[in-house]
Each structure stands twice: as C-alpha cells, then as structure tokens.
Fold these 2 entries.
Entry 1:
Amino acid sequence: MPDQPSSVEIREALLRAGLAPRAARRAVLEIEDHYERLLAEALARGQATEEAGAHASLRLGDVQAIVADYARRPELLAWSRRWPALCFAVVPLLCYAALFAATLGLLVALGRALDPYLRGIQLSPQATYRIGLTAQILLLWLFPLLVSFSVGLVAHRRRAALWLPAMGILAIGILASLANVELTITGGTPSGQVGAGIGFSTDTVPQTLSHALLLTALALVPLWPLSRRGRQAEAR
Amino acid sequence: MTVAAKNPAFMSGVPELVVLRLLAQREMYGYEIARLIRTLTNDALSLGEGVLYPALHAMEHRGLVRSRPVPHEGRTRIYYRLSAKGQTRLSRLTAEWQRLRAGLEGILGAQDRA
C-alpha cells in the first residue's frame, strides 16, 4: 500500500484504539481490499502507479480518521476497553476462585472414589507430605500464575496499559496468599482429609506479603518486555 | 470541497440512510457501496471512503445490517445485506428526510417567490 500505513500499522492503531483483535483484523481486511480496488480503478483509468496510489489514498481518507471514527463508537470497542476493571481484575479473580473450588471438588470426589483402596494401604509420612505439598503448589502457586499469565496475555493482545493487568495480578497474588489448602492422605482409617480456607493472621504477615509479591513479580516479568516493545512500536 | 466536508453536523444520519437504502437493493461489499454513493450523488456525498467501515460495523452491531464473508481470489470479502430491523429503520429515516425535504422546499420556494 504505497502512501498508506501498512496493514500491520493500521491493525496496531486499531488495537490501541480499543478494538478487539478479531474486529481489528476484519477492519484491516476491508480497508486493504478497498484500497486495492481504488488502486486498480485508478490504474485501469491509465494513471501511473504513483499517481494511482495517491488517488487511492485520497479516496480512502486518512487512516487516523478511520481509527478515530472506530474509537468514537464505544459499541465497537472490546469489552476489555469498555470495562477494564471487570476484565483485568474481577473476572481473573473469579476464574482463580472457580479453578480453586473445582480442583478441591475433584480431589474430594477422587478421595471418595479411591477410599476403599486407600483404607487398605498405609502411606509413608514422606509420601503424605509430598502429596500435600503438591496440592499446595498447584492451588496456591501454579493456578494463580496460570490465571495471571492469561490476564497478561489478554492485556498484551488488547494493547492495554500495563498497570491494568498489574492490578489484577496483584489481586490474584493477594487472594492466593490469603488462601490455604491442606490435603492429607495417609491411607488406613480414616484414609485422609481435604481442607481449605481463606484468612489473615498477623503472625504470618511477612509470609503472606512475600507470597503475594513473589507471585505478582513472577507473573509480571514476562509482561515487561512485551509492554516495552509495544511502547517502542507506538513511539515509531 | 463536498457538502459532507463543509457541514459534518448537517450530514448526521445521512450516511446511515444512504447505506441502508443501497443495501435494500442488494447485498454489497464496502467498496461497491462507496462507489455507488460516489456515482449516484455525483461525488456530493464523498467522504473519506474508509469511514464507511466503522459506520457499517456499528450498523451491524445495532442489527441493522448483517454480514457474511465470501472468499474472493484467495482473500475474504465481507458482504453486507439489510436486516428486517434495518428495513424498519430505513422506512423511518426515509420518512424523516422526506418531511425535512418538504419543509426545506417550502422555505426555498417561498424565498424564490418573494
């Protein structure tokens, strides 16, 4: 597209204006097709390539004006742009809570199904400890990180400002640090127990804080270079 | 300079009416709509043709038009057609503009007679 911003630049501008990636792709597809038809029309009239390109650009209009027109219509913007707090904080928190609850439910169901077998065996204290630790790592570290990475990825794809996902990620980190889970499988009778809860104790403030901050930092590290690259692209 | 460029406020609602009217005839894609507007209005309504797309997408979002992708020479082209809701809106807009036109003709005619 001579005399016109490239498709990538138009798409980037549309994403920054708040369009969802799919809507931006479609807009680029249509704008590009329109430009090529205008160009072909001018060439068919016998205009030279450069003149035809200039004519097509003039007819199509300023791309920034098109982008601004999209931005003026809130109904065309992605829901992450219209309700950022909901998208980057509330929904991720709910996702983490749902994932946590579903996993606990699954563990309880599995425990019930395996109870007859577990009653007949005796696990070593080491195995019991490892199973409990695995559940804690999964529910209090891996799941929050998984949800946080997803928030970051969505924010990057939507070209959202970094502080928006950062707030959501911090909220997930705090929730995960306040939650606790205990899975004890010993075998015998009773064969084990599952427990979970959420609470705050002044005795464990340093541990809670460091858990929350470490989770936030781990989730934000991969976002930082992406955000930096985005700012550099915007500056160009 | 065109009417649109000189009087953006005056043009409010016109692109919607024009697009709906054209789509009432047949299914079209963006470039076809723009070319028809250009031809039928003798360039009097010529806007930057790119702004047709936000308008079309907004109309689609409001349920006035429907779209479908059609493969064309290895690419995808989006065709638009009028919906039942769009037909109702077109009838309302047409009636409003005809009333406005009659009012303006009354004023202009009176001035000519004076």
Entry 2:
Amino acid sequence: MRDRLIVAGQLLFTLVVAAFLIVPAILSMLAGITVNYFRGIASGVTLQWVIQVWDLYAETIGRSFLVAGAALFVTLVVGVPAAYALTVRGGRLSRAVEEIITLPLAIPGLAIALALLLVYGGFSDFRRSWLFILAGHVIFTMPFMVRAVMAVLATIDVNTLDESAASLGAGPWRRFRDVIVPNARPGILAGALSVVTLSLGEFNLTWMLHTPLTKTLPVGLADSYASMRLEVASAYTLVFFVMIIPLLVAMQLFADVSNGARSRA
Amino acid sequence: MSDGRGVALRLEACAKTFPNGTRALEAVTLHVDRGETVVFLGPSGCGKTTLLRIIAGLEGPDPGGRVLFNANDVTDVPIERRNVGMVFQSYALFPNMSVAENIGYGLKIRGMSGKERGARITDLMELTGIRGLEQRRIDQLSGGQRQRVALARAVAVHPSVLLLDEPLTALDAALRERLRGELDRLLRTLGITTIYVTHDQAEAMALGDRIVVMRNGAIVQTGSPRSVYFEPNSRFVAEFIGAANILQATVKDGYAVLPGGRMRMPDGTAAGPATAMLRPEAIAIIDSEGADLCGTVETVSFIGDRQRLTITGAADRPIVVEAPNSLAVEAGQRIGLGIEPRTVRLLPEDRR
C-alpha cells in the first residue's frame, strides 16, 4: 500500500513537471491557430496565421534547411574522417586537436560570431551570403559529429580493425569505406541528427551573423515576436515544432536501434 | 624445406626506437626459410611483437634496418602491398561482415570474382572446421570459432608469410590446448612461412620448427625446440623454457662440490666456480645409502601423472624433482639423487 502511494506520488510529480514544460508550448501553438488570442480559443480556429507565416517566412524555413543540410554535409565529409584520423593517430597532438574542435561547446555562440565577424566581416560577398551562416554552424556543430563518431570508434578497437584490413590488402580509402564507416554507423547517425537539430534551432550565432537577407528560422521567429501580432509569432512556433519534433523522434528511434544492436551483441 | 610455400624471410639489423625514445628492439638479424615456422618467444616487453609488426609492415625499422621477402627489399612497402596474412590477438574480425564476408575480404580486394571467392571460402571453412557458420555474425561466434575465422581469413589470400600474434592467448586453457594441436596440423598442411609470437613456452615448443628466444629487445638464443630446451645458452633461457634447477658450485676433479655431497660433471668441465642447470625430470630419486648426493624431501605435491618433490640440503638452494607417480616418498625422508652427467648443462654466468 505504501509502495503504491510512493509510486503514485512519483508519477504525479513527473506529470506535473512535464505539464509545466509542455503546457506553455501547447498554449503557444494553440495561440497560433486562434483567431484572436486575447479573446481565447472561443474566437475560433484559423490557419490564416500559419499561412501568413508561410508567406512571410517561407524563405527563412527553406534557408534553415539549406544551412542544416549543408552543415550536415560538411561535418560528415570533414568530421568523420577527422574522427577516424584522430582515433587511429592517437598521441598528444590528436588530443590537442580534439580539444580545439570541442572548444566551441564552451565558448558562447556570440563570442564565436564576433570572432567570425572580426576576421571575415571585410569579405563582403562572403559576409552577405548564407555561407557565412554556414561557417558559424559548422564550427558550432562539428564537435558533436566528431565526438559522436569518436565515441563509437573507441568502443570497437578501430586501430586493430584498421590494421587487419590493411594486412588483407586494403588501402586507406578502402579501409575507411569498408570497415571504418560501417562500424562507426551508430555514431555517424547520432552525430548527424545532432548536427541537423542543433543547426535548425541555432539562434545565438546566427542572430549575430545574419543579414536581413540571410535570416534562418529561429531568427525569423525572434523577428516575428518582435514585430508581428502574437498570433503570427505563435503560428511560427507551431511551424517550428512541426519541423523539429519529427527529427527529435527520429533521433531517439535511431539511438534505440543502435543500443538494441549493441545489447544483442 | 624446398616444398614450402610463401617466401624466405630475412631481417637485417632491424632495430626499433619509438618516438618517445623507448628502445623496443636492438638491431636484429634473422633468416627464416621458406615454409619454416619460427616462434618468437619471450616475456612481455621483450620486443617480439615489435619484430612481428616490422615484418608485417605495421612498423618501420630504424634507419639501416631492412626487411627482405625472397631477397626483395620490402622495407618501404606498406602492409597492404606486402601480401601478408595476419592473425591478431583480438582477432580483429570485422563486425559489419558475416563470417564468409570476413574470410573473403582479402580475396575481394584482390578482385577475385564472387563465384571463385565462394569456392575458396568453402575450402577454407572446411580446412578450419567451421563449415555451416558462413552467414553468422561475428558476435554470434565463440572464442574458438573466431580464432578459426581469423586464421581462415589470413590464409585465404595465399600470403607470402603468415604472422600470428599470440593467437591463442585470448582463449581458456583447455581450448587453447586443443586448438594448439589443430593449429599445428594446419600449419603443417599449409606449409607457409610462418612467424608465431607467444609468451607461452609450451606453445612455442609444440608449434615451432625453430624458436627465437627474446629478451629486452634482443635475441638471446635461436634453435630447435629440443636444442633450446636441452642446451640453453643462458640462465634466462634455461629458466624461461621449462622448469630448471640452477646450481652454483665449485668444480674439483670433475665433480661439483655441493652441501649434500658431490655431483659428477660432464667430461672436460674445468675446475673452479660453475653454474649448472638440471631439468627436474632428469633427476632420479635413489636410495641415500651409497649415493654421491643426498638431501631431505621437504615437500611432495602429487600432480597425477607425476609428483613434484622439493629437496633441501643437497645444493645451495632447494632442488625440484619430477618423480614418477608410483614412487613412495614422503616429506622429511632422506633420499639420494641420481644424476647422469650428460643431463647436467653448464651455463655461462649471466651478464645481467
């Protein structure tokens, strides 16, 4: 009886905390489909705000996906081989490189953005293009890819696998393709999903780096909060959630699948 | 061994100093005949694995060292072009491939067609006794099965030289014993030039045509299993290979003078201080009446197929004797030791 009370109490507490976190998000999204927020849901349900958001900000949404996709591409092409090289090489130099790659996690996004502006602000074509945003996102997301891949490589004794593939006649590229990448797949998937979700949601850096013509989704969201009716901003939140939630769910599923594979081993 | 396969292997002045300054290997020169199985034997840190890795091409020797396969200098050839077959201590099977894919990987890289590859894989699985496991994943295999897959994968490519780095160490004792016999049969069947690295002297004796005993990065003795066992050239080899009683004594008139009497030395032994080795199984327990050398049984441990006695009072230190299991003997008993002079091996003083 007492145990049941404790369980019930814990459940209640969990639900309260969850509600505390979820209710504002739901209310915000509801506001996005309410005709008039101040009169409440009774004023009727509408998609006009969502449509207005789409008209005004479709470009930022597209750009966000472009940046996220490009950031994913760069982190895959650079980060996965880097993780392989850092793991196989080892030694102090590799440790130093790993620390440097990881540094952006500890430095505020604003500081990174400032540094980028100081160095590259003068290259006006670069400064004005979405590639400038991409540079910031790559710096910010790279450690997540490299670390995720390195963590998996560390669990599979990648050095010996590499040596054994080499002994069978495989050159460096062949070894990377046939042995390293397939065995690092759980890490690459986890890293990729981190990169995409982090890039889509990134605000600090992007806010500093953007120009009126290179707004991303979160920057547009801030913009709409600042300058539009509350319903529009809320509709924007709704759009954002619709984009990001499936990604988060997919990430969780992938994590479960790769954990499952490991526990069967 | 002209009927052997693979290459004749030659190492010339191969030394290895690691970037941190550690001297892993002194300059080693060694010749391995075509088809010969040579075992590198020594305690951990003796340089045996480093030497194997130099042959494989995973490490380069210090400048001046050369590795030759059939008189071709391969020192600067990377491992992927040396055509070696290698079995790692951890086996290093590819977890993303099935058993058959693992075994066929080297063949696939060499561009062999799928059909030919399949036939070769089947042959190898037959040879190593793992038929039926083709589609298994690596994590579904037992330790012994993994060892066989690793071996099949290494020999699949008809390597110039087969390199085995402690391939049985990861297995439990009973399985190790069984696989040792299997491995011996397989190496004889294949007849490939083989380098086998181990710290287990029983494995070395069972498998090697020749044993290279290493210590502190240098070769201390090279010879057949019998010659390193019966004629060790140093105290280190005597004690590392098999069990040995090492006695210090003064030799006078062809006899070693010991606390428990005297011991006939091999003919021609010079007078003066000497270090002698006696194998425990070469000593007979005899009646103490009239024996040249006597002692007291301190402990008797019955092992089953034999019994191990410790005898005190005979020499400067206790002597271990392996006696037949039928012998009635008990602790405290006074006994004589029968030693044939030809079983006594004189050792040079160790320069430690």
